[in-house]
Design goal:
Largest interface: A-B, 20 and 23 residues
Structural class of chain B: alpha/beta
Number of domains of chain A: 2
Order of helices and strands of chain A: HHEHEHHEHEHHHH
Radius of gyration of chain A: 31 Å
Strand content of chain A: 5-15%
CATH class of the largest domain in chain B: Alpha Beta
Largest sheet of chain B: 6 strands, mixed
CATH topology of the largest domain in chain B: Rossmann fold
Distance between the termini of chain B: 27 Å
Shape of chain A: elongated
Radius of gyration of chain B: 17 Å
Oligomer: heterodimer
Order of helices and strands of chain B: EEEHEEHEHHHEHEHEE
Number of strands of chain A: 4
Strand content of chain B: 25-35%
């Protein structure tokens, strides 16, 4: 019996959805708008995170060793650093490499080249360039080197020079994450309220029908199921509507990132995650539709 | 059989709809409840469909005490009754066929049986050609015939008619009354509430007069009198 009931409910709900064409389009559009706002905010946070990761990746601290430090000690320090959980990677630049780089960069600058020739010995220090997972962690590294067993060999740390900039960036990253989450939450709540109200208005037009159905002897579930089916349909079509908008939007924004020198291809990113994105949208859309319908119709079932 | 035992319905201190009603309705009877508007006729009927509950007293409906019916059992109780109203109460977004079929769908009747029953009942009420129309496309008389078809398609024990001809002209009124008499002849108990004198006189069956919430008259083969 429940199979027949379910079949009839789905059929009745679908028929209602089609027959009330304009009302259905209006309600679906409201859910689509809500979904769109939620999705845009979520992807903004996602893209902002990617951008910040890239910026963080460009930051590194450099440790310079006194010229009399043997390569063995420096390589041992490199090994020790690499064992630390906070450290992402360490690159070694020997004194010779540093000189090579300097010559390569300033080969057309006669003043520098001449002064290098004047010097009998390579004046440059060997260095380790350190990248960490989280830019908050540079201080730990600094403490490890400057206060630890290598303190006699270290001539200077570049991190201290950039401390202000790095701290500033950290603050920006954290505040973007926090405000992003708060904004998403606020918009999600607004979207849910608007959707719920829109569905409530739709259900209001059905209130006499519900009363009649009850008088004819329909059980509450028999009355409720077609409306829930309608809720599912609102959600599905809203998700599809938003899904269609994604590709042109990604195409539109792609040049902005390239012009800003950020290595993010929005089209490719969308392409890789489209199933995931559509799945989430479908889930949120259907949940919004179903829960709103369920609550809205409850009122008339009680009466 | 339906029995009202000392039934009263009081809405609040100032509004008393029914006072100490004692009434027995036999199986297969055609009973007209008469009285002016606002005297309690509709309340009397609404107590049977459990749209209202009595303030005191009991109603026995085919051996079931209505006060014992739970929320869950309510739909099953309503399926034993067919109801028609002055304002037809049809589902405006559904076709005539779907409106009538709905009364069977709620009980989980098979689609093939629904098809058969609906076309049979459409023949009886004379609307076999209009099954794809929507209620708004029909005249008042036709809409009421659809409502009767819906009320009867699941073969209820009782048909309750609350001012069924209130919105109809004379010709349509007679059509509907003839139809109700025909249905009664086939064995269904009919409880008709009306304030239309001509209807009652023409039916010429048991008449129960109500005034100010009290039964003032109960006559076999009665006429409309106040």
């Amino acid at each position: 019996m429940w199979k027949t009931t379910l079949y009839r409910a789905v059929k009745a709900g679908t028929k209602n959805f089609i027959r009330n064409g304009w009302l259905s389009i209006a309600t679906t559009s409201v859910i689509a708008l809500a979904l769109f706002i939620i999705s845009v905010l979520l992807s903004l946070i996602f893209v902002a995170n990617l951008v910040l990761e890239q910026i963080q990746d460009k930051i590194s601290a450099s440790v310079y060793f006194k010229t009399n430090t043997s390569e063995q000690i420096i390589l041992k320090a490199k090994g020790d650093l690499e064992l630390m959980a906070e450290v992402k990677g360490v690159d070694y630049t020997s004194r010779g490499d540093a000189l090579g780089l300097l010559k390569e960069r300033y080969h057309s600058n006669d003043v520098i080249m001449d002064s290098l020739k004047e010097l009998k010995e390579n004046p440059l220090e060997a260095s380790l360039s350190i990248k960490v997972h989280d830019s908050n962690k540079y201080e730990i590294i600094e403490n490890e080197l400057a206060a630890g067993k290598y303190k006699d060999y270290v001539s200077k740390m570049d991190y201290s020079d950039h401390k202000v900039e790095i701290d500033k960036l950290n603050k920006i990253i954290n505040s973007i994450r926090k405000t992003g989450v708060i904004m998403v939450l606020v918009f999600v709540i607004i979207a849910i309220l608007v959707t719920f109200n829109s569905i409530r208005l739709t259900m209001y037009t059905y209130r006499t029908e519900v009363e009649i159905m009850k008088l004819v002897g329909a059980s509450n579930w028999f009355i409720r199921l077609p409306f829930i089916t309608e809720g599912v349909l609102y959600g599905v079509f809203a998700a599809l509507m938003v899904g269609i908008v994604w590709y042109p939007l990604a195409r539109y924004f792609a040049p902005f990132f390239i012009n800003a020198g950020i290595q993010i291809n929005t089209v490719q990113l969308l392409h890789q995650n489209i199933v995931y994105i559509l799945g989430i949208q479908l889930l949120i859309g259907v949940l919004l539709g179903v829960i709103s319908s369920f609550i809205a119709i409850r009122r008339y079932l009680k009466a | 059989m339906i029995e009202y035992r000392n039934v009263s319905k009081i809405y609040n201190r100032n509004v008393t709809a029914l006072v100490n009603i004692n009434l027995k309705i036999k199986q297969g009877e055609f009973i007209s409840i008469v009285g002016q508007s606002g005297t309690g006729k509709s309340t009397l009927l609404r107590l049977l469909t459990l749209e209202e509950k009595p303030t005191s007293g009991r109603i026995i409906f085919y051996k079931v005490d209505l006060s014992e019916i739970t929320k869950k059992e309510l739909p099953y109780h309503r399926r034993r009754i067919g109801v028609i109203f002055q304002d037809f109460k049809l589902l405006l977004t559904r076709t005539i066929y779907e409106n009538i079929a709905f009364a069977l769908e709620v009980s989980g009747v098979k689609s093939s049986e629904i098809k058969k029953s609906v076309s049979q009942i459409l023949n009886i009420v004379g609307l076999e050609k209009k099954f794809t129309s929507y209620p708004n496309e029909l005249s008042g008389g036709e809409q009421q015939r659809v409502a009767i078809a819906r009320a009867l398609v699941h073969h209820p024990e009782v048909l309750i008619a609350d001012e069924p001809t209130g919105n109809l002209d004379i010709i349509n009124t007679w059509d509907i009354i003839e139809l109700l008499l025909k249905i009664n002849k086939l064995g269904t108990t009919v409880v008709l509430a009306t304030h239309d004198k001509e209807t009652v006189d023409r039916v010429s069956r048991r008449v129960v007069g109500i005034d100010d919430g009290r039964i003032i008259r109960d006559q076999e083969k009665g006429k409309y009198m106040i």
